[in-house]
């Protein structure tokens, strides 16, 4: 049985695939470098006017936030240019991870790339901007470790703490698709491939 730091069992619909993306990590990091050269990482602003501590960019359909709200766009609002294509290798990784977690037929059309420097975090939130809630979310961790928080359908529900390391993939869908989740502040560290940074690739079926 899979469980969190404190031995709490994962809820139905949540899977943690340890090391699932390890063999592709180098390729993924190279892709992040290429993407960020044309669609730079930036600290987006929430509708409430707060800059997010994780810097973001996208491939495929891109998730964005600004004073106008949260949404998916085909173009990078910063440059007006279409987000870089979602690489087929990333689509394949998402499909295989979803399949291994019991979700068949997942075909992502967008991937948010989060970059966490030391101290960056992500508050508890639900992924609700996607058009197809039958599709799971596939979340790939690279570089420094982090504590991933996974709660329930209500913001105030208790959260489990799951340490996610380089190459781990977390998948949630079905009954857990709308569960609140977040990331605790990333701690100081050095990873041989990313230095003092954590990356997260979140594959979604946006439309
Ligand atoms: O960085 C992570 O592990 C999770 C990212 C996340 O929750 C999101 O992008 O919605």
Description:
- The chain has one domain (2-204): Jelly Rolls, CATH 2.60.120.
- The termini are far apart.
- The mean pLDDT is 97.
- Helix content is 13%, strand content 31%.
- It has 2 helices and 12 strands; from the N terminus they run βαβββαββββββββ.
- It is globular.
- It has 207 residues and is an alpha+beta fold.
- The chain has a 6-stranded antiparallel sheet, covered by helices on one side. A 4-stranded antiparallel sheet has the order 6-11-8-9, with no helix packed on it.
- The site of 2-oxoglutaric acid has 11 residues, from strand 5, strand 7, strand 11 and strand 12.
Mean pLDDT reading: 97
Instruction: Assign the CATH topology.
Output: Jelly Rolls
Q: What CATH architecture label applies?
A: Sandwich
CATH superfamily: Alpha-ketoglutarate-dependent dioxygenase AlkB-like
List the topology elements:
Blueprint: E1 14-17, H1 25-38, E2 55-60, E3 62-66, E4 69-73, H2 88-100, E5 110-117, E6 122-125, E7 137-143, E8 146-150, E9 160-164, E10 169-172, E11 181-183, E12 197-204
Antiparallel strand pairs: 1-10, 2-5, 3-4, 5-12, 6-11, 7-10, 7-12, 8-9, 8-11
The chain binds 2-oxoglutaric acid.
Keywords:
alpha+beta, Jelly Rolls, 6-stranded antiparallel beta sheet, 4-stranded antiparallel beta sheet, 12 strands, globular, binds 2-oxoglutaric acid
């Amino acid at each position: 049985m899979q469980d969190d730091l404190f031995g709490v069992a994962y809820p139905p619909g949540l899977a943690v695939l340890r090391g699932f993306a390890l063999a592709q990590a180098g390729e993924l990091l190279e892709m992040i470098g290429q993407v960020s050269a044309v669609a730079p990482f930036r600290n987006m602003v929430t509708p409430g006017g707060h800059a997010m501590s994780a810097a973001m960019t996208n491939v495929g359909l891109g998730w964005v936030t600004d004073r106008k709200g949260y949404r998916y766009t085909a173009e990078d609002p910063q440059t007006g240019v279409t987000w870089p294509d979602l690489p087929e290798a990333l689509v394949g990784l998402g499909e295989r991870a979803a399949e291994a977690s019991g979700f068949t037929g997942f075909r992502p059309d967008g991937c948010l790339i989060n970059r966490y420097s030391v101290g960056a975090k992500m508050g508890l939130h639900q992924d609700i901007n996607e058009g197809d809630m039958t599709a799971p979310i596939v979340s790939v961790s690279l570089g420094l470790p982090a504590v991933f928080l996974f709660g329930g359908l209500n913001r105030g529900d208790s959260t489990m703490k799951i340490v996610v390391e380089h190459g781990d993939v977390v998948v949630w869908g079905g009954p857990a698709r709308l569960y609140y989740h977040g990331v605790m502040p990333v701690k100081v560290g050095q990873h041989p491939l990313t230095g003092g940074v954590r990356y997260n690739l979140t594959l979604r079926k946006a439309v």
